[in-house]
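This follows on from our talk about sequence and fold. Please put the record directly below this note.
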Amino acid sequence: MSDELTSELRELAAEGEMLPALSGAEIRGRALRRRRRRRTTLAVAGGFAAAGLALALVLNLGGGTDQRPAPAASPTGTPSLPAVPDATVDLSRRVISVAGRELPLSSGSEWTPTGTGRMTVTAKESVKVMPGSVAGIKGDYHLKVPWVIEFSASDGTANYIAGLTYDEKAPGDYDRTTGWIGLRQADAKWLYGQLSPGSVIDVEGTAPTDTPTARSTSTPPTALPGAGAGAGAGSGTSGG
């Protein structure tokens, strides 16, 4: 293609330097031949372009060997809970580990065991009025429980951690609750400031069997600090 165009340009340059020695019919014939050559050149160039486009389409449709990998699928579903919990409850050792500290605890007895698994804190209350049955007291009694941290399992089962005001000797020594986790008041208050709704708690192990001495010591009193008869014993105040 380049040689033909060069040749035609040279002919035009030569014709411009000298007077035409051809008749009108010969000049028209030469112009006709030039038009035919241009058409042939354009047709050949179009053929190359069409062939290139067809090859590109074949490669894009998977006909080539150099195929690009499909983009990775976007992750779906709800985010999982963090691998490391904010607090770990070890029922067998009677401790809860939080921020490098171990706090002694008292959990449910062998008759009312504490549920295990991964839990999430759902609410907090600095004081909560609870039925006396949480302390194993029969009758229409209520008591005020301080520094209450409520948490739930994935199936909706709820439990809580709070200050065990009526028996501060129990945490770390024996289990006397009806399934919730009791701490000394000072420890319960500190933990209340460490955990918030959304915090993750792992409850692991099994509470050891109490000794007869521990069971006799843990007999619930008939009257509890802050307790009163009926529903009018007081009301909880929201904290956090």
Remarks:
- The longest helix spans residues 24-63.
- The chain has four helices and ten strands.
- The chain has a mean pLDDT of 75.
- Residues 31 and 46 are 23 Å apart (CA to CA).
